[in-house]
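Design request, tokens follow.
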């Protein structure tokens, strides 16, 4: 009990009793125990007092001349300000207390006069404690309700943003890649209905063209997120759309999931391709006539040149040849992508192709003081030998270009379960992680000055990828900055 008293030390008690002696006795007793007591002898004054400054508990005499205790209690319960104040009725010994009525009008307990100190205090404390707990519960309940409302509002906001986003968005499980939720934009782009896609996996729907997507997922697992990786998405009708895929890992009900946000750039790509191919076609004829004219001048068929003139012409020829190479590469790539160039596949020998590629690059390697080591495997391959050779020389040429004198390059091959793997490993400058995928895209170079300094066009790897994909293989690179890179080619045997 002592601890309860300390809890309710300042509890404010209103005592309403028309007998002043009773009141004096009660007040004295409660004040001694540390309560704050207001005592009134008139029912109406008590009611007004309770409304003006609601007490923590009311002790109410049943029998009063002007208005009896039951009526006072009814007034108290009818008023919002006083409704929740616990009321304990006091009845005199000999009066017959209508207990049922006492509870009916809202009383919580009753005491019979003359008072027994311990009993009054025990009952008071019990009801004050109940009241305090109730108030606490109510406050907690209100707070919970508010939190629920706030959470619901926030969820609604995000759900709306998810549904209405102009970007296709999908949520899938990480392990199985099973779709849990899809927005309208995703359905529009993919051509599927919600029922057709929910609970299906990426593999069930054959949604992504492998290669870029596989690499994107590897990057996601390595870095924990993915930003704007170019991938090819297959719609329900089989149409291929080029998209930038961004993924964040999230956890839903304890399950690791991916939040996939897509930016469809198919149309932008098409316009870009169209523009580049148009410009390239337009450039090719005048370029050829320029190089013809420069050749005539350079070989002095139109008159003798000074040494300075020779030098200028030779710079002009160099640059024009680079431009012609660029234009030819662009058109080559475009024709390959659109399937206008079919691969002339025949049975060829990997070892032979590798030795041929190394031989073609030997002069360049020697000039750059690079050692070229070939470790071929004797495996037969069903492929277009010229195109595979083009790929290997391109990779070797890059490896030489980006290595310092004195370094070594290895061209190796091996038979792995169901495919052939060819690798080109260098000890060159390496490639930053965020560029490992990007360099296979058209015109993408690690350093903007690479094309000027190293004479490349930024199309080589794009062409290599196109060739390898036409052979149903894949190509990728692993690299450590400052230590070197290894390009991998997997080809089905
Ligand atoms: P380029 O004609 O510029 O060589 P590529 O498509 O062949 O075009 O290569 C694209 C870019 O990738 C290069 O400009 C270079 O920045 C980077 N790269 C390619 N191969 C290597 C390599 N072996 N080491 C370091 N960087 C490389």
């Amino acid at each position: 009990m002592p601890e309860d008293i300390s809890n309710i030390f300042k509890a404010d008690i209103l005592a309403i009793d028309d007998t002043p002696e009773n009141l004096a006795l009660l007040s004295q007793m409660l004040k001694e125990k540390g309560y704050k007591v207001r005592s009134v002898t008139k029912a109406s004054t008590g009611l007004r007092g309770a409304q003006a400054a609601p007490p923590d508990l009311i002790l109410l005499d049943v029998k009063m001349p002007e208005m009896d205790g039951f009526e006072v209690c009814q007034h108290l319960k009818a008023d919002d300000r006083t409704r929740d104040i616990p009321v304990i009725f006091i009845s005199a010994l000999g009066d017959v207390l209508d207990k049922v009525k006492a509870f009916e009008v809202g009383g919580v307990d009753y005491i019979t006069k003359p008072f027994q100190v311990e009993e009054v205090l025990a009952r008071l404390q019990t009801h004050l404690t109940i009241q305090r707990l109730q108030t606490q519960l109510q406050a907690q309940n209100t707070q919970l309700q508010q939190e629920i409302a706030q959470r619901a509002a926030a969820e609604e906001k995000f759900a709306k943003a998810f549904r209405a986003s102009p970007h296709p968005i999908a949520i899938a499980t990480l392990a199985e890649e099973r779709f849990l939720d899809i927005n309208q934009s995703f359905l529009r782009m993919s051509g599927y209905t919600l029922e057709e896609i929910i609970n299906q996996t990426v593999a069930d729907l054959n949604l992504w063209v492998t290669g870029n997507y596989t690499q994107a997922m590897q990057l996601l697992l390595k870095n924990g997120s993915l930003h704007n990786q170019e991938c090819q998405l297959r719609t329900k009708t089989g149409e291929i759309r080029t998209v930038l895929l961004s993924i964040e890992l999230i956890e839903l009900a304890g399950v690791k999931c991916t939040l996939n946000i897509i930016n469809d750039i198919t149309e932008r790509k098409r316009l870009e391709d169209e523009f580049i191919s148009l410009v390239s076609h337009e450039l090719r004829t005048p370029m050829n006539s320029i190089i013809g004219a420069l050749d005539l001048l350079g070989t002095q068929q139109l008159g003798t040149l000074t040494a300075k003139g020779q030098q200028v012409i030779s710079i002009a020829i160099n640059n024009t040849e680079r431009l012609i190479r660029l234009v030819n590469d662009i058109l080559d790539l475009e024709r390959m992508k659109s399937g206008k160039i079919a691969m002339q596949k025949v049975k060829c020998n990997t070892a032979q192709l590798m030795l041929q590629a190394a031989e073609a690059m030997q002069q360049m390697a020697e000039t750059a003081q690079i050692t070229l080591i070939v470790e071929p495997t004797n495996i037969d391959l069903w492929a277009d030998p010229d195109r595979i050779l083009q790929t290997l020389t391109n990779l070797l040429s890059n490896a030489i270009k980006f290595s310092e004198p004195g370094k070594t390059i290895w061209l190796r091959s091996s038979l792995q379960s169901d495919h052939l793997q060819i690798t080109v490993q260098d000890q060159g400058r390496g490639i930053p992680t965020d560029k490992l995928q990007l360099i296979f895209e058209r015109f993408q170079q690690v350093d903007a000055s690479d094309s000027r300094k190293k004479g490349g066009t930024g199309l080589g790897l794009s062409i290599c990828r196109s060739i390898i994909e036409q052979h149903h293989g894949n190509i990728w690179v692993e690299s450590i900055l400052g230590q070197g890179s290894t390009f991998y080619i997997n080809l089905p045997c």
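Comment from the thread starter after seeing the answer: thanks! The chain has four domains: 5-137, 165-264, 268-338, 346-492.
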